[in-house]
Amino acid sequence: MTYRVLSQLVPILPGLFLAWLGDMGWRKSLIALPLLGLMLSRLVVLFMLILDWPLKVLWVEVIITGLCGGTTVFWSGIMTLLSLCSTGQDRSKLLMRAELISGLSGVVGCLTAGHLYDFSSPTLRPGVVTLLLCFLLHASCILYVIFFLKVGALCDNKTLKKANDEATWDHPHKVSNIILLWVSVVLYNAVDSSTRNILVLFQLMEPLHWNVIQVGYGNASGFLITLSSFLSSVILSRWLSDSALITIGLLSNAAGMLPMAFATTTYMFVIARALTFFSLMPVPFICSLLSQQVHGSSYSKLLTSLQLSLKISSAGTNLLYAKIYKETFSWFPGLVLVLSSLISTLAIIPIRIYDSRLSVRCIYRVIEDEEADQPDLLLEKQEPSGCGVGELEPIQTGFWARGP
């Protein structure tokens, strides 16, 4: 747990600096430098295994990763590029698609990692093959970013101007909307990341007693949630608003954590896990709504700051959950999962407040046609920030109505 907390706190200052570089035009730095840190850290651990270095070398590994930004800055860089090359109307789907690709690759990694880790020989220790593969994959990603990724082609001036125009709608609650969305995603992510860490202990120890291969399959089932969440978002987004999909995701997470806390067999755990099949929808949809509140030139700072705040909150809840789990393990090891269910339900409140402020989707203003001999009054529809730009046609309103 200390290792995880350190990995979440070290990237704060480097992340802010890289976010500033990204908004200054160095978009690739948000992706290339974190990948370089990850590659070097894997190399350090590889040498630790081969040369039998002491376990304290892992502190060097986590510091190298953090100083280069780590996965926090890497993922915010991905979201920044996707936000810049999309409009507000399709941004949530694009971010959800990125979550899907990440989840599917996680499924492959989890299914193979357990088997590759046990591969050894008289000259190779367990884990060496896994680290070699990680090093090669990170190196290939860096080469792709440097030589093949065309950031200028993704973020052309027309797309950036359109993204900026979407954020200029005059809305009286813009700042408070950002705060509401921020609070909701922080509450959700804090319990989600902390629960994932505790689930490893929950699976290895009583009452489940899983082995390493079973844990790999369990993690793979967790990543499969990205597939179910993506398909659900694609289908349901035809009729439901983004805030409604966020609420469904939060309810799914809460509904899955509660019965999981009382699971005593693998069969019961799998059933409870199935209830969380929509639980990964909130973060990409909230990130999409947040990006629509600011200009495109501030995406890096906003999304990186968001990711860093998520890491800081996760660090605090990781320590709290570890303490609670240690104190309650002997009589009720699933208490932290019950707590996660309650907090996930609590995160729905800011989303409901946000949605109630956007219940009136269209604001009309009267403009005068200067070309006509007699001024004609025309209605020009505007969208509140965060709703996207739609066509000039009647639309539904309300919490469950799909925005224009």
CATH architecture call: Up-down Bundle
Our measurement of the CA-to-CA distance between the termini, rounded to an integer number of angstroms, reads 44 Å
Low-confidence stretches are 163-170, 360-400
What structural category arises from helix and sheet content?
A: mainly alpha
Q: In this structure, how is the largest beta sheet organized?
A: 2 strands, antiparallel
DSSP helix fraction: 55-70%
Number of domains: 1
Count the DSSP helices: 17
Number of strands: 2
**CATH homologous superfamily designation:** MFS general substrate transporter like domains
Which strands sit side by side, in order, in the main sheet?
Answer: 1-2
- Rg to the nearest angstrom? 23 Å
Arithmetic mean pLDDT: 77
Q: What's the helix-strand series? A: HHHHHHHHHHHHHHHHHEE
Entry keywords:
404 residues, mainly alpha, Growth Hormone, Chain: A, two-stranded antiparallel sheet, 3% strand
Question: Helix and strand layout, with pairings?
Answer:
Blueprint: H1 2-9, H2 12-23, H3 29-50, H4 57-67, H5 70-84, H6 91-117, H7 128-147, H8 151-154, H9 157-166, H10 174-204, H11 212-236, H12 242-260, H13 266-274, H14 282-291, H15 299-328, H16 335-346, H17 348-357, E1 363-368, E2 377-382
Antiparallel strand pairs: 1-2
Helix pairs in contact: 1-4, 1-15, 2-5, 2-15, 3-4, 3-5, 3-7, 5-6, 5-15, 6-11, 6-14, 10-14, 10-15, 10-16, 10-17, 12-13, 12-14, 12-16, 12-17
